[in-house]
Every structure is written in structure tokens, then in C-alpha cells.
Amino acid sequence: MAKKKTIRGSSSDLASLLQITQRRTNQLADEKIITRQPEGDFILPEAVAEFYAHKYKAEKALDLMSERAMHEKVKRELSELDLRQRQRELHEATDVEMVLTDMLVRIRTRLLGIPMAMAPRLAGLSKGKIADMLNKEIESALMELKDYSPTMFDDAGRGGMERGSEQNG
User: Fold this and answer.
1) How far is C-alpha 127 from the chain's CA centre?
2) Which of 42-56, 93-107, 147-161 is predicted with the least confidence, judged by mean pLDDT?
3) Count of the separate structural domains present in the chain
4) Distance CA 133, CA 121 (A)
5) Are residues 74 and 97 located together in one domain of the fold?
6) How confident is residue 64, by pLDDT bands cut at 50, 70 and 90?
7) Would 1 be classed as within a structural domain?
8) Which pLDDT belongs to residue 50?
């Protein structure tokens, strides 16, 4: 059986193979990342394998650290959003849609009901008096829109208008 020949080289040989400086090669040997032989040289295939194993292990560790950092950032952002919701500074889009739809349906119904409600009271009055009475009724209907309260968004808008009106009325 033929004896396997080992390829050995100096730190400058290893440095040129790895495309790093001879000083860095010596640092890696001092840090026990690559193995320096007792004779002071290196078994080149082993040293190259040790170098790349260390290099890729370090890159994976960096990837893990950046993943953890991104995860922590997302957790922080979610916590900030949750806090803003609890402080009633932020609402779900569906809640906003439900509350606004409810408010607009109510104001539409109220405005469309004005002619029927006011017609008997306005019969025979002067134009000026009719205009004043209609303006007061329309302003009264529009006042409902200003009765916004963050509590309207509690329970996803269910009953929010009633609570808002009760608080302000």
C-alpha cells in the first residue's frame, strides 16, 4: 500500500492559498482556528478546511444575530401598535369602516326625514321663517357628526354610536 503524501507549507504558502495576509494566517494559528504543526508549518488541506469551516460558522452566527435583531424589531413594533390601540390612538380599518358607515347612515336617514317632519310646521310661514327653521333642523342633524368619541370604536363599532351619543347628549 502506498503511503499518502501530505502537502505541507509555510504560513506564506497558506496565506496565498487563502488569499489573506501572512499576518492574518499567523493570527488564525495563534487563535487555534487553524492548526500549526510542531515543525512550524501547516498541513495545507487541513488548514484550508479549518479556515473555511470557521469562516462559514461565523457567517451563520451573524445571520442568526441579524435574524434575532429583526425579530426583536418586529416584536417592538407590534408592541408599539398594541399600545397605540390601547390608548385609542389607532383603530382597525374594519372598525373605522363600521363606525363611519353607521354614522353616515344615521345622518342620511335624519336629513332625508327633515322634509316630512318639517312640512306640517312650515305650512303658511314666511320664506325667512322657513329658512331659519330648516337651518336649525339641519344643524341639529349635523351636530351628530361632531359627537365623535374614541369609545365608538370599542367592541368593533357595535353600539359605539349609542355610547357616543349618550356621553355627549
Assistant:
1) 58
2) 147-161
3) 2
4) 9
5) no
6) confident
7) no
8) 92
